[in-house]
Design goal:
heterodimer; A: about 550 residues; alpha+beta; 8-stranded mixed beta sheet; 4-stranded mixed beta sheet; 16 helices; 20 strands; about 30% helix; globular; B: about 375 residues; 5-stranded mixed beta sheet; two-stranded antiparallel ribbon; 11 helices; 9 strands
Amino acid sequence: MTTSSRIHWWTSMVMLVAGAALGLACFGRRENLAALARPPADRNVLRIAFTESLVPDPHRWSLPMPTYNHFILSLWEPLVGCDPATGQPRPAAAESWSVSPDGLAVTFKLRPDGRWSNGDPVRAEDFVRAWQRLLRQPMELAQPLYMLKNAEAFNQGLVRDPALVGAHAVDDLTLRIELEQVRTNIVAQLANPLLAPFHATTERVLATQAYIGQPQQLVSNGPFRLVAVGGDGYRLAVNEHFHGRDGVRLDGVAFVRAGSFRIERMLLAAGVVDLVSPLSAFSDSPWPTSRPVSMRSELVLAVSSLNFNLLRGPLNDMRVRQALAMALHRRETIERFGRGRLVPAWSWVPGIPGREGLALMKEDAEQARRLLAAAGYPGGRGFPVLTMALSSMSKDDPFPPAWSEDWYRELGVKTHLCYEPVERQDRRVKQGDYDIVYGTFTATVSDAADLLGVFLWPPEYSYSKWVDTEFARLLAKAEATSGAERLAILDQAERRAMAAMPAVPVTFARRAALMSDELRGWYEDPLGRQSPRGLWLADNPAPDEPMRAQPGL
Amino acid sequence: MIDGDRMIRAPFWRDGRTWLGLWLAGTVAGVVVLAWDAWPWLHGSTLETFRYTKLNRWPIEGLWWLLLPLVFWLHSHLTIKDRRWAWTLVLHAGMAVLVAVLFVVVASIRVVLANHLPASFLPVVANELRWTGGWSYTPALIYLLLTFALYTISFYREWRAGQRRMDELVVANAQLETRLVRASLDALKMQLHPHFLFNTLNSITGLIRKERTREAEDVVAGLGELLRRSLDHRQEARETLEEGLVFLRRYFDIECIRFQDRLQVEYDIAPKCLRAQVPSLVLQPLVENAMKHGISQDPAARLLRISAVRDGTRLILTVYNDGPPLPSDDATLANGIGLQNTIARLRMLYGDEARLRLRNHPPRGVRAEIILPFQTNTA
């Protein structure tokens, strides 16, 4: 029964004091706090923050990809690396390579001084072993090896004998690969961290997760080796058997688990980590400590696009597709929703090392209206409602509604944004029951042909269903040539694709990394494959370097 | 709960101490489980960090569990029934905000502990939680809903208790009224008995003086039996007409001795009226009046007729004597104690549905008539 008893005055006071204390906890000082001093155990150890699940298995992607790359490239070394400035391959586990006259075989000579972390020599069969394991994985992982002879058939179970796959250990130091068809960028493609070698024990250790209790059991050939696994992440120490040991200036690398993307920034401010790459969350909060940091960014080798289904109604008309492409307002939309993270895409392939991006797109609402009228839809009258297939996971993405709004405002074209669970969206796309798919294609090699290759996908896998024999001929020709001639052919192919407009490139992304000023040797890589091998920590960060953190990092 | 002089112990599940004990037991069990789970982390294991302890994973449940007694305590000490209801609402709103802020702080502490951040980062983390959904009004909403539910239950219980008290009061009032009526009836009956007793004793005295000792003995014996039956009936407010007539026959047995052969008593009773419920001894004062003011006053008078008929829903009882007419109706009614008592009893038992009339019956005699609702035990 409710009585008429009163609450005592002191209870109100307690509540008031508690509220004030909690308020202070929430709204207290948030600037110029003291950062933690680097623990002695972490002296000359690069500490990298990560948020998603990270496992020391090259065949298990973890997102975002740069974090995965930093981790895997710390532990393992593929056959080749890629020069981030030129996009050209350079020796890594292999010291040299030669391409056969017909271009269908490449022979790699491994370094004689290549060693596993337990001292065993790195052999050609270690690559064959790892690649065969990769080919037993699902298609999305195994696809980078489809260039090898019989690799796709082996992955799909059509070929049972692994010896028929085009990867052979000729001897301990000679690896020969055979290709399905000529590919100019085949060597660069082997720089993929996914294609790291496996020691004889690696597959078992990964399968049993024995590395959790006994990290030394995970034998690797990279600049670092696993020394500790804990709930808070991984700790790596220098691999004393690494052939380039003398060039490794760090004593170790620690991958530190963060609760969320936003916490990563705080860990850096507090002095718990030295590098956040990529910086996935931007914040308007002031920088809480005096720790000097800097932000570096690089253009990502990826393109976000609106892909038209050419088999659907008016989208089969090139004038309609061009009108839709011209009616967009990329700059205004990016300014509104993606400032600092995105740039307008005027071509299908962004600028990459050794190749400037082309200017193939233009925005002209008046011309777009004329084109649509010429196609028989003046003012959008009679134009059917377009169905844009979207995953319900992308409901917070502001861009599809923005593009849709542009089309309605400029052309009177209406769009149904069809958000569905991933499975239903996949089914819809496979059945071709859509007009537009909004998606992002990411390159795995710093080469224009990699992104242009999406237009060669078979119609059953292609969003746009665009088939053009001349385009296919040009790309095939590019694969058989090199140098300036190849670049010219790729330009020609890209211009042809963008003229036909099976898909409209809308945005390119910039990837940012936030790092302590102590960190040295950081370089831009459009593929986000910076290896900690070449990084080091300055003992005394120079105060005059332009790397001071700014609000909004 | 105190009810009169009795102390009634509330059922154990209504006793706050039971729930407090259960809460304490649950808290101790929870602490043991959490401590057991966090043991490796507390001992510096690298594999088991705070991030994976139940302490980090059960904060919402744990915090609500700890807050529960406070919520109940506040509810029991804050009432919105009195004039300070506005203050109560303000305190509850403030408490809701406090609860929400507390959850933010706890979430911030979790983040600080899980990520090995310095304690000075607590405000930074709390501020950052805005962007990750950490600032949620859900705890405040839950608190307000919980409080609302508690008040609803309290008001419902009060309403039920009020209903029960009202029912008890109605029953108590009815019982009290019955006791009062019974006391009044007893008092009235006590006025009847001495009146009759004195007349009879006078008769006995007369018989003794006339040396009619045998008749005097019969009258004494009859009186004794009459008194015994009268005492037997004292606790009953009503009796059947048949029982009343048996009593009257005893009475007339005595009066016949007193009046020798001059008294002629006639009964005209409809058989179906014998079961009718009537006030006990209701005819007695009418009969005594008839004897005293009628038969006794005129040597020629000798007839006394008692009749009972049913008239629809009414029962009409009549006592007729062929004695002298009434000198004045008003005076007779006003002065006769027996008649006044009878009128009072009828009003008490039947209200306006019953009445008593006394009037001359030309050419000779007086007729007393009682009209009352016809009722039986089964009615």
